[in-house]
């Protein structure tokens, strides 16, 4: 019997465990496998194979039985609040009701991707780098704690991940949004270029419109064709999965790359329950997994563990990793685990019309969008709120047809749409939220999910700082649009829920001091140094940039550090 | 670009896949609507088709009926709407027939185009919100089914699944 147990343990032992196969987990898998580590990747959902499992990717509008609308009997299987967003096109990636119930102590919109690839299949693919103006924010403005790293620490890793992922963009030469390793840029359209010129002139070269850097292969390099990825076809059907591999996802890029090394074991249907802490060795020895099909609990063992379960789930796993040494969650002597949750403020939206360039239009589809980098409080404090916001921006000409009437007139109107007699312009804010202790997640004392794991309680709300920032965004963009000659300007505070931005962060923040932070500068737990957290949970502050590229860079950096420490026998 | 060409181009773009996934070879183009024949009675189905054809008729371009929109409507009403909504559609059909008898002394089917249009437009501005809702839903679904058909998408609306480019500033074609 003893031998059998020993064999079973050996069979379940790897060099590394990666929890989660999303945008950061995929990177952990790739880096660790490339360095020769036998790695098991644990994914709670089902497998989605690149190309083969993108079942709706090549369907035309008329191929959908209900033209996109989801039938009632299927709709009823999904959470009520989200049902409005369900579409036949993207149904394969939607999360059914009851899979993982959680408790909204205060309203929180939590979007999850429970399948191999996670949200990397469904993301907006915007990839802006952070600058030191972001990393130095907490220290300068006196909130959270100082980041233990600066731009120079992460810059080479941004380059590392950008080259592999394939990022399209212009070298814009802006201090607040450093340039990277860019493929051929997508161009701004006439109206966006017009706004760009107006802002430079009217705001003394301090406000800019650029094309958002995005994870689209606009001209494939050998490193992309080696991944089996082809040029972006400008289909803008990305959220069905891209059979061309035109945009970056774990499924198209990092996971197949890791698999090719022969070192990766991918285990879907594996919900991680907790991390096992070995008190004798004073480090983690493995993880407990619930097989979601059999509900059986299985243990896996490894020398290092990467926690990439998505920000809130990584918090949940650590909170649920209880031992004699850590009765309040792994590495949580300071009681900060789960606290200082933050996200991005997407509340403000603005639309307008423009009567210029009426002889011009666009042709094809832009998978990216215009981007206005943060201009508020950049180099010094200048408003009555802390930090600032970036904004997405897009203009389009479009055409429309009247739906009035009946018979031949109606038909002709539908068959021959007329180009609009103006351009439409829209913008959405992306504000930095200040992490505060009160905004937190914790384990529910009694409620459990279907796998016996405590339910997560989300307790997070907007602050005055957020409200002031929305106000400022609406005022400033109204002013900027007015200067550009736009009309019919409508600004709105949508008062969307926290989390609706799908950029939830923090709870396991990085810092220099174990008393005030959870992770060190290498994303390892201060108190359990073979556990690395490199997804959104590690974020000390939020910046304004879409965060995925930063998680990728953190992950690659931490993985390479972990391997070098293992070689030195330090891990 | 239609699906067949898109899949051919996909194969080219990826340097020749040895085997295409199941979704590329099975195709949906032949899918036929699985209709519950008891849901709408035969006379209701016929009336609904006549209304749909009145909204978007056949002429030198195809109309809604010949593009299969009546079956699409039934499919949508059967699968995507609450029973109260579909009940109101049945009520609306009865009301349509009644209006034809009352206004023109014959069945809706026997009315000429102008008379049919007049009856339906009467619902559009009707004070009875149930009639208004009936016509509004039938009209919107007819437009949806018609404008998303292959005939309209590829023949008129310049549908192109994979344009392969984006140009931000080009002259408007006259």
UniProtKB/TrEMBL annotation, chain A:
Listed Gene3D superfamilies: FAD/NAD(P)-binding domain
Keywords: FAD, Flavoprotein, Oxidoreductase
InterPro entries: FAD/NAD-bd_sf, GMC_OxRdtase_N, GMC_OxRtase_C, P2Ox-like
Cofactor: FAD
All copies of domain Glucose-methanol-choline oxidoreductase C-terminal, residue ranges: 435-554
Domain Glucose-methanol-choline oxidoreductase N-terminal stretches: 98-321
Domain of life assignment: Bacteria
UniProt-recorded Gene Ontology molecular function terms: flavin adenine dinucleotide binding; oxidoreductase activity, acting on CH-OH group of donors
Pfam families according to UniProt: GMC_oxred_C, GMC_oxred_N
Sequence similarity: Belongs to the GMC oxidoreductase family.
Entry protein name: GMC family oxidoreductase
UniProtKB/TrEMBL annotation, chain B:
Signal peptide: 1-24
Pfam families attached to this UniProt entry: Gluconate_2-dh3
Organism phylogeny: Bacteria, Pseudomonadati, Bacteroidota, Cytophagia, Cytophagales
Record key words, sorted: Signal
Highest taxon of source: Bacteria
InterPro entries given in the database record: Gluconate_2DH_su3 (IPR027056)
Organism (species): Emticicia agri
Protein name: Gluconate 2-dehydrogenase subunit 3 family protein
